Amino acid sequence: MTPLSTLRVPTQPYAGQRPGTSGLRKKVTVFQQPHYLENFVQALFDILPGQVGPIAGQTLVLGGDGRFHNRVAVQTILRMAAANGFGRVLVGQGGLLSTPAASAVIRKQGAYGGIILSASHNPGGPDGDFGIKYNIANGGPAPEKITEAIYARTREIEAYRTLEGAAPIDLQRLGTQLLGTMTVEVIDPVADYAELMADLFDFEAMRAWFAAGHRMRFDAMSAIAGPYAKAVLEGRLGAAPGTVVNGEPLEDFGGHHPDPNPAHATALIAAMAAPDAPDFGAASDGDADRNMILGRDFVVTPSDSLAVLAAHATLVPGYRDGLKGIARSMPTSCAADVVAQSLGIACHETPTGWKFFGNLLDAGLATLCGEESYGTGSSHVREKDGLWAVLFWLNLQAATGRSVEALVRAHWARFGRHYYSRHDWEGIPVERADALMASLRAQLPALAGRELQGLRVQQADDFAYTDPVDGSLSRQQGVRLLCEAGARVVFRLSGTGTEGATLRVYLERFEPDPARHDLPPQQVLAPLVALAEEVAQIRTYSGMDAPTVIT
Ligand code: G16
After folding, report:
1. Which helix (H) or strand (E) holds 28?
2. Cβ atoms < 10 Å from Cβ of 446
3. 167 C-alpha vs ligand 1 centroid, how far in Å?
């Protein structure tokens, strides 16, 4: 075996990717180019000693969501980890680990860090997307100073280390194998995670809920949540076999878009609207960090979900002592803020992206976190966690005896309803999307105080965030038009797409009057949609007539 390879790296992994993304996400075909993945991985291993500390002899966690190219990438990374001096790699059986489970394993095993292979909710398969990201010892995505250092290093790197000719590791065989002098431990991908869930939730009450005849449908969308949901829901909680549907992880997610939202989880929404619908419906995404919650013929918005969980947290054993604070991404509705206020705790407003929650959780400033993009989580790991959110809702139903719909309606009656929707305009040519945002930013000084579409704009700005823990400043995180009576429109460009640019328009309107809690959200939000169009000229810039996805 040759421990050092000095092959030149011909590609620039981050080329074309918007800054701020916590990892590298590209088409599979891009990742299949010679030395492309190696460039990123060696850049990572090169900068870690300076950013974090020596890697010699350290333990790394490795696994992915099982999408096409996962196994090939796992073997490549194992050889490189060995050649770069890691002492041990814990890899999920079959190369699998959901994103929240990887975070749980990193924390529980006290690992140096971990590499997660996933393009999250993006489609998979030979023509789909692939991704890689690095998580630090707290179990959370690497902060920007690390991702920026990786990026800088990928541009100058000329060689990488690998164990050339090493035989592949048998990823199915649990237990220890040697790669050079490095130990590879193939671990059960579910065990540590399932134990953590049992510590947090009242499994006995949830078992009783199922035993009383309640039914549930969990759509794993042919992605990595399947094995976790089966082990916990059907295995430990006694849910009927078949509760978990699409539970086998497939390399191409069965050709579907594994994103749990009203646009892509249509089969689940239909099943929950059928006459024989079960009591509780849920779905999660490609790497199992997102969640969607449904009652019978009733879809819960992620912003409401965070608020309901926060309001009832003390009913769950893991949160019985109360919350230290709540954190939500800026475009997420203000429903959680109202709960935080009533609890007398802080609600932190961060830029979009889970990585911004890490410092707040580490510093004990927040316990629950959430994003409007179907991400919810807590201090138990440092990623959002799909199955955790589902179990939280299950625990609440078991503890209160109330249905999902009853819980949400009671919440609105007490705190008011935050009507909410997100309109995505996908595949806009990048220059045009940039021009749209530039035009919006240029208009900001003139917008405050104006009345548009019958709504007075009270504040117009470009969201900036100063991290309360490390003082770092993140600018240009979304253009906000804050209107009277808790109405607002937010514009930002996605950082995670792999084709063209995606404009996200977030719409929110507060309604305190319970007599007005049953209106169609798009109707309530129509004036804000018109306001957004008037100010941003989306149709003109995008050349499209309507958003491609509405959630
Ligand atoms: C989208 C969502 C964000 C989320 C991010 C990463 O980002 O809007 O809220 O944090 O995906 O999600 P995941 O970890 O599931 O890939 P963007 O920049 O496309 O809006």
Report:
1. helix 28-31
2. 10
3. 37
Average pLDDT over residues 81-99: 97
Q: What is the model's pLDDT at position 18?
A: 54
Give the pLDDT band of residue 433 (cuts 50, 70, 90). very high
Q: Which tokens belong to 179?
A: 């790669």
Report pLDDT digits (tens) over 219-277: 999 999 999 999 999 999 999 999 999 999 999 999 888 999 888 999 999 999 999 99
pLDDT score for 143: 84
Residue 443, burial from CB neighbour count under 10 angstroms (0-12, 13-18, 19+): middle
Instruction: Please indicate whether residue 422, judged by its CB atom, sits closer than 6 Å to ligand 1.
Output: no
150-154, 392-396, 533-537: least confidently modelled range = 150-154
pLDDT at 519 over 90: yes
Cα–Cα distance measured from residue 521 to residue 508, given in angstroms and rounded to the nearest whole number: 9
Q: For the stretch 32-48, what's the b/e string if a residue is b when 16 or more beta carbons lie within 10 angstroms of its beta carbon?
A: beebbbbbbbbbbbbbb
Choose the residue to mutate in 332, 352, 421 for probing ligand 1, maximizing ligand atoms within 8 Å of C-beta: 352
Q: Are 105 and 111 in contact (CB under 8 A)?
A: yes
CB of 251 within 6 A of ligand 1: the answer is: no
Phi/psi for 467 (5° steps) reads -65, 125
Q: Any idea which residue has 């011909």 for tokens?
A: 10
Ligand 1 atom at minimum distance from 354 CA: 10
In this prediction the pTM is 0.93
Handedness of CA 525, 530, 534, 537 (dihedral sign): positive
For residue 113, what are the β-bridge partners?
60
Would the CB of 98 count as within 6 Å of ligand 1? Answer: no
Give the pairing of strands 175-179 and 113-117: unpaired
